[in-house]
Amino acid sequence: MTRAAVLGAGSWGTAFAQVLADAGTDTIVWARREEMATSINEVHENPDYLPRITLPVSLEATHDIEKALAGADLVVLAVPSQTLRANLEPVVDLLPRDSVLISLMKGVELGTDKRMTEVIREVADVPESRVVAVSGPNLAREIALREPAAAVVGCTDMDVARRVQVACNAGYFRPYRNHDVIGVEFGGAVKNVIALAVGMAAGLGFGDNARASMITRGLAETSRIGTALGAEPLTFSGLAGLGDLVATCSSPLSRNRTFGEDLGRGLTVEQVVAKTRQTAEGVKSCRSILDLAVKNNVAAPITEHVVKVVDDGWTVPDMMASLLASDPKHELDADV
């Protein structure tokens, strides 16, 4: 039987661990806090991140990282993107030989502008064929409730992708595979930034027209930057692109959309951070994504304006006014 270790007991890490367990994979979750591991083992619940949802009895948890990694065929990394390097470096020597490393994170590292699989490959010193990115319209609570969802397993090695597909094919969770790792990852990272902008518009009281317009132009922006980095354009029409973008921009379960709504209602970034218990990845990654766009001479107006609010202190009304005041262009122009 395949054995999986999930490092990170947040909402998505726990939900994906449930998926693995439901698919028949022997799964253990590493929790940073011992009381969290105890709750999962004894009460079968993650009260902090997935309250009132019963987890599989077969799902094991531990506070001991060595125990979690021992004999793991699959090592799933489910920590905040900006802490990946710090979390992975101390345990590199504990990673089982030939284990497949799976990223659930959707972000771009500050300072290096690296995607999460690039950070994993660099820190663990492993070939790209051993690193997988899982992405898609995957709101953790809905998946934990076993509502139907689909995702993309991105890997340059299709045999490895198939192994991961089998390990997480839980019936209600349908995994597809794709060799375009850049596209799979970048779609997941940029959609968080677009969701912040959509949330800001909602916080200002704007309706469905504004949301649909922002989603559509956000998809164009994602595709422009992603293809400049080497992604395949068609990937952004799939689950890891359009699918994830629609879910994240539309659902009240989305941390990034909710964060943006609070900003639109007049709260400062610091005030929203203080009231939010979970990570809104777009807040941390927007600057790195803009850096990538600038380096590749790609226009990214939505990302640029989100950065103005998050990092530069602009108000949301001023940001929206500036975004709408840009010169109108042909819809299909590559630089709009």
Account of the 3D structure:
The protein has 336 residues and is of the alpha/beta class. The protein folds into two domains: 3-179, NAD(P)-binding Rossmann-like Domain (Rossmann fold, 3-Layer(aba) Sandwich); 185-324, Orthogonal Bundle (N-(1-d-carboxylethyl)-l-norvaline Dehydrogenase, domain 2), CATH 1.10.1040.10. The protein has helices at 11-22, 34-42, 65-69, 84-88, 116-124, 140-144, 158-167, 181-203, 208-228, 239-250, 255-264, 269-275, 281-295, 301-310, 316-324, and strands spanning 3-7, 26-30, 60-62, 74-77, 100-103, 131-135, 149-154, 173-178. It has an eight-stranded mixed β-sheet, sandwiched between helices. Helix 2 (34-42) links the parallel strand 2 (26-30) and strand 3 (60-62). Helix 8 crosses helix 14 (301-310), helix 9 (208-228) runs antiparallel to helix 10 and helix 14 (301-310) packs antiparallel against helix 15 (316-324). The relative contact order is 0.11. The model has no long low-confidence stretch (mean pLDDT 95).
Whole-number count of domains: 2
Write down how many β-strands occur, each being a DSSP E stretch of 2 or more residues: 8
| Largest sheet, strands/sense/barrel | 8 strands, mixed
- Supply the number of helical segments: 15
Order of helices and strands: EHEHEHEHEHEHEHEHHHHHHHH
* Radius of gyration, whole Å: 19 Å
Give me the side-by-side strand order of the main sheet: 3-2-1-4-5-6-7-8
Average pLDDT rating: 95
Range of strand content: 5-15%
CATH superfamily of the largest domain: NAD(P)-binding Rossmann-like Domain
**What is the CATH class name of the largest domain?**
Alpha Beta
Q: Determine the N-to-C terminus distance.
A: 50 Å
- Spatial shape: globular
Note poorly predicted spans: none
* CATH fold descriptor of the largest domain: Rossmann fold
